[in-house]
Amino acid sequence: MKARVTVTLKSGILDPQGKAIEGALKSLGVDGVASVRQGKVFDIEIAGTDKAKAEAALKEAADKLLANTVIENYRVEVVG
Amino acid sequence: MKSAVLVFPGINRERDMARALKLASGHDAAMVWHAETALPAGTDLVVVPGGFSYGDYLRCGAIAARAPVMDAVRAHAAKGGLVLGVCNGFQILCESGLLPGVLMRNAKLKFICKDVHLRVERSDSPFTRGYNAGQVIRVPVAHGEGNYEADHDTVERLEGDGRVLYRYCSPDGELGDGFNTNGATNSIAGIVSDKGNVLGMMPHPENHVEEIMGCTDGRGLFAGLVAHLDKAA
């Protein structure tokens, strides 16, 4: 099964990289960019077909390693 | 003082650290590989040195913080044993849960490599007893992610309990945005755990311990640890 974990900064956490990207997009003249926050995406292949089990494993992966929950939120999706 | 210096792939300051420890204590530090599950018997001080463990992949210190040896370090700290993390070592201690908060990208996004001044906030900790409270020392920093951040309650607790031991400051000990090298909350350069036995700091005291380095201000930290342990023994 294909799965995806998306890790994003919690709101209120300063994101200097996102700010720099935002500035670059604005200087490129890309229309309508209000703000940018940078995050991470992990594409993970899960063995087996049990969706609930896969979600539990992904959540464990995110809690234990992929996200630092002091500053980051994460979202887990089993794509199928 | 029996010290153990942890070695992770990508760490590069472990030999500087071992040299500073030898200079202060007269004893060779044990170099402990990350895959070990125990520390050498009788270890007084565990040092997590600086560098770029695992190439800073994922987040600085994130992968090293989950290495087998870290369970032994947690057990050592839980018994009140001393732990010192410098630079990447500070990041590893935060990621491992031994210290609160996180080291974010420097506010101006640049890697900073220069000497900075630090104000020693108190002298009654094992990590500062070689200095006087309010003393200003000069030590180098070399990091891209040293901007200490934590949630409001954690910062209040750190400040209220006097757990900030080192702050970035002017040569005269003044605080201010102009001296807060990396943009850290409250100019925080180094903090201790709630029991006071685990210190994390971004600057490198081990790189200012010999005349040839141009400055010996870092010696006090190591001399203080030796004095603390001699008194306890």
Notes on the structure:
The complex is a heterodimer of chains A (80) and B (233). Chain A is α+β, with helices and mostly antiparallel strands and 80 residues long. Chain A contains two helices and three strands, in the order βαβαβ. Chain A has helices at 16-27, 51-66, and strands at 2-9, 40-45, 72-78. Chain A has a three-stranded antiparallel beta sheet, with helices on one face. Chain A starts with a strand and ends with a strand. The mean pLDDT of chain A is 94. With 233 residues, chain B is of the alpha/beta class. Chain B has five helices and eleven strands. In chain B, helix 2 (69-78) links the parallel strand 3 (45-48) and strand 4. Chain B is globular. Chain B starts with a strand and ends with a helix. The mean pLDDT of chain B is 97. The chains are: A alpha+beta (80), B alpha/beta (233). The interface between A and B is medium-sized, with 11 and 18 residues.
Question: Got a strand count of chain A?
Answer: 3
Give the integer mean of the pLDDT values of chain A.
Answer: 94
Which regions of chain A have little confidence, pLDDT < 50, spanning 5+ residues? Answer: none
Total strand segments of chain B: 11
